[in-house]
Specification:
The protein has a four-stranded mixed β-sheet, covered by helices on one side. The chain is an alpha+beta fold. It is built from three helices and four strands, in the order βαβββαα. It has a single domain, classed as Double Stranded RNA Binding Domain.
């Protein structure tokens, strides 16, 4: 997976950059169809907000786009929150893909049986 990390005015440290790249790659392994991830760090300019560090991730590939955004007091907290959101969205997306391509698996997962009723 190709991970591109950009930042706004504030420069992100190498440690944060390396941890972010590792975590986003790990999330990308759950769905092998996703080929590219763009991570953008920014800072909220409202001084009344305590959680000012913002992290936005856009993952794309094979016609699917998954986007998540989170804020935190420290960039690593924002990254952790974004990773949780991405994991949830990837699981939902994979469920939809499997449900469309293999309807029998969807029926088995919901616990309902598919029977054809004959009318006389």
């Amino acid at each position: 997976m190709d991970v591109v990390i950009t930042h706004g005015r504030k420069i992100v440290s190498d440690e944060v950059r390396a941890l972010t790249e590792e975590k986003v790659r790990h999330v990308g392994e759950h769905c092998p169809g996703l080929e590219r991830a763009e991570v953008h760090f920014s800072e909220e300019h409202n001084r009344r907000i305590s959680a000012r560090e913002c992290c936005e991730v856009v993952m794309s590939g094979h016609g699917h786009t998954i986007r998540a955004k989170a804020v935190g007091q420290v960039p690593l907290i924002a990254v952790d929150l974004v990773v949780e959101k991405l994991e949830h969205q990837i699981e939902r997306t994979k469920g939809r893909i499997v449900g469309r391509s293999q309807p029998r698996h969807r029926m088995a997962a919901t616990g309902t049986l598919y029977r054809k009723v004959r009318t006389a």
